[in-house]
Amino acid sequence: MGIIKKFPVYVEHIPGGGIVTTTLDGVLNYARANSMWYMLFGLACCAIEMMATGASRYDFDRFGMFYRASPRQTDLMFVAGTVTKKMGPRVKRLYEQMAEPRYVIAMGGCAIIGGPFYYDSYSVLKGIDLVIPVDVYIPGCPPRPESLMEGVLKLQEKIKKQKLSDWA
Amino acid sequence: MTKEEIAQILNSRFSEKLKPAESVSHLSAFFVEKENLIEICKFTKQSDQLKMDFVNCIFATDRNDSLEMTYVLFSLEKNHKLCLKVKLPRKDSQIDSVTPIWEAANWFEKETAELFGIRFSGHPDPGPLLLPEDWNEGYPMLRDWTGKDFVKLPPK
């Protein structure tokens, strides 16, 4: 029963019994929030920080997060770095290839609004949210691994509040 | 070969076609007319003393009143450099391509053509290189360029 005690509050256990009741929402969200596989995909220096977070020192694995090299197997996309106008449609295409439910984290100033390339630039997209919907924005240039993990925890909170009826 | 020796060799052959340009310490620089560019480039490559067999870089600069093409040539064998510059008008400028002489000039010229609007006649493969495929906003490296969502840095 150890694991059941750690299970979120929306699980009710019947005293003395081996049966638990919960909602379908609760189980699905619990599974989704704790196994966000993210895409092995980086655009600029933020990707280095993302790799550092995925490696053993900061250890994304403890959130159940592993990188996958194919968009078909991923739930989460970090837009890690400067998105150029030429890269924008490619990012959108990768996003469309991901299976639903899919989530996007815009990492760093460049992905949020263009960062240092906001002024006097002909080639940089002014925010990835012009192309694909974004769930969590993480500012920084680049954000430290701690910020990245904070952003992931925020996304987990968001996922746990989802209702199955929203997807219908 | 020092930059003075290079200047001497070029001057003895093309004295009336060269004008000295402002140069940095290790590099002799000359202005040439665009009609003479191919002739001079061929000479610098074929001459036994110069042997410029390597194109370091080719780029344009917007000088507000004109465009300036810069060719930085290098000799791998002799280990010396030379810089040639060509003044061009800002609108509808055209210049002969040096790709038939140095194969490496191909992409330098494509990039310059795309970003500054200079036409390179005789280029074997003209066309877009870096900008998005559906780009129709002109030549972004010109100083007076503005685009759809271009934001100018406000003055301090």
List the defining traits of the structure above.
heterodimer, A: 168 residues, alpha/beta, three-stranded parallel beta sheet, two-stranded antiparallel sheet, 7 strands, 36% helix, 12% strand, B: 156 residues, Beta Polymerase, domain 2, five-stranded mixed beta sheet, two-stranded parallel ribbon, 3 helices
Protein described:
The complex is a heterodimer of chains A (168) and B (156). Chain A has 168 residues and is an alpha/beta fold. Chain A is built from seven helices and seven strands, in the order H-E-E-H-E-H-E-E-H-E-H-E-H-H. A three-stranded parallel sheet of chain A has the order 5-6-7. In chain A, strands 1-2 form a two-stranded antiparallel sheet. In chain A, a hairpin with a 6-residue loop joins strand 1 and strand 2. In chain A, helix 2 packs antiparallel against helix 6 (145-160) and helix 3 crosses helix 6 (145-160). Chain A starts with a helix and ends with a helix. The relative contact order of chain A is 0.17. The model of chain A has no long low-confidence stretch (mean pLDDT 87). Helices cover 22% and strands 26% of the residues of chain B. In chain B, strands 1-2-5-4-3 form a five-stranded mixed sheet. Chain B has a two-stranded parallel sheet with strand order 6-7. In chain B, strand 1 (18-20) and strand 2 form a beta hairpin. The longest helix of chain B is centred in the N-terminal third of the chain and has 12 residues, at 3-14. Chain B starts with a helix and ends in a 35-residue tail after the last strand. Classes of the chains: A alpha/beta (168), B alpha/beta (156). Chain A binds chain B through residues 85-86, 118-123, 126, and chain B through 130-133, 137, 140-141, 145, 147, 149-154.
